[in-house]
Amino acid sequence: MSSSSLGFHTLYDSRIEKGEELVLTEELFEQGLDTADIPDPDLLIRTSGEMRISNFLLWQIAYSEFVCTDVLWPDFNRYDFLRALLEFQSRDRRFGAV
């Protein structure tokens, strides 16, 4: 069973039971997420004209690029996807740098 499927509480509890000191690090926090074995997304496409993320993958999208479109999800097609990819491709990604 992978550490990501155990969840943070299980990781925490097992280390406490062993008498280990637990220092919460970014790595330990990431291990407790359901997406621990999945790379963070480079692009988040938000449909229906919404300009919010609704608490979706908050930790994982810290350095993701956002493309917002007025197209509703049921109508979002491969051409809309291509437009989003072209917009993403034209961006200068700095990964948090100024």
Describe the structure.
- Mean pLDDT is 86; it is low at 1-5.
- The longest helix is centred in the last third of the chain and has 12 residues, at 78-89.
- The chain is elongated and about 55 Å long.
- It is of the alpha+beta class.
- 33% of the residues lie in helices and 8% in strands.
- It contains four helices and two strands; from the N terminus they run H-H-H-E-E-H.
- It has a two-stranded parallel ribbon.
Global structural class: alpha+beta
Strand content: 5-15%
DSSP strand tally: 2
What does the radius of gyration come to?
A: 18 Å
Strand neighbour order, sheet with most strands: 1-2
Stretches with pLDDT under 50, minimum 5 residues: 1-5
State the end-to-end distance: 40 Å
Query: What is the typical, i.e. mean, pLDDT?
Result: 86
| Global outline | elongated
Please tally the helical runs, counting DSSP H or I stretches of 4 or more residues. 4
Biggest sheet character:
2 strands, parallel
Which sequence of SSEs, written as H and E, runs from N to C?
HHHEEH
Into which percent range does the helicity of residues fall? 25-40%
